[in-house]
Amino acid sequence: MGPRRKLDLYGPREENEKPLPVVVFFYGGAWNSGSRTHYGFAARALAAMGYLVVVPDYRLVPEIEYPAFLKDCAAAAAWVGEHIAAYGGDPERLVLAGHSAGAYNAACLALDPRWLAPALRSAIVGVIGLSGPYDFYPFDGPISQRVFGEADNPRQTQPINHVGPDAAPMLLITGGRDRLVLPRNSVNLSAALERAGVPDRLRLYPRLGHAGILFCLSLPLRWRAPVLEDCRAFLAEVTNPGM
Fold first, then answer.
1. Which has the closest alpha carbon to 130: 69, 79, 189?
2. Mind listing the pLDDT tens digit for each residue in 121-135?
3. Which of 189, 98, 93, 178 is nearest to 136 (CA)?
4. Cα(11)–Cα(23) distance, rounded to whole angstroms?
5. Are the C-beta atoms of residues 35 and 3 closer than 8 Å to each other?
């Protein structure tokens, strides 16, 4: 296991007789920083809406190199698929979510068939990407060059290149003032999903920057943009068909 291969579970305060839909949330940090313990505010916000939320850690650069962090995220998702029923979750209604590098991780697991078993991929009913990088090749920044520059097939590192008609619906939220992960990443992925006939929602908030999208999940900053309400509506649609 190791200290970077653990996860935390969050659930609503009210007890539920029926299994809850599950959100697996991957945090960001340029693949070289971050801890699950820092993202309780996001997990609690999602759990309060009636979801079981899982926040995994994963190993980071330079301890490991690409694609080891994706393998760790895939292992966490596989654990959820195998064990979440024992904690009151529904393993057939999984949503992958994340911010920044975590949104990349979520998108890769959902789109690229290399990472998850077919049965687990079919249980993914939706993906939420907050300020995510999905289309950044050729690598022109120090972070992307460091993390992905030695990949055997660099184009295959890009989530946008794995979009197909079987992809799960996606909610992509980005900020117009994001200078770290440019909004075109979300715009381009949204266009690719639409070309493939996959339902998607694109939300661009002009006044928000990279971290601002995530912080809108926190109680003090929800007034800045309805990011949590976007998530609420999307989650209700993909986990409860007909609602």
1. 189
2. 999 999 999 999 999
3. 189
4. 10
5. no
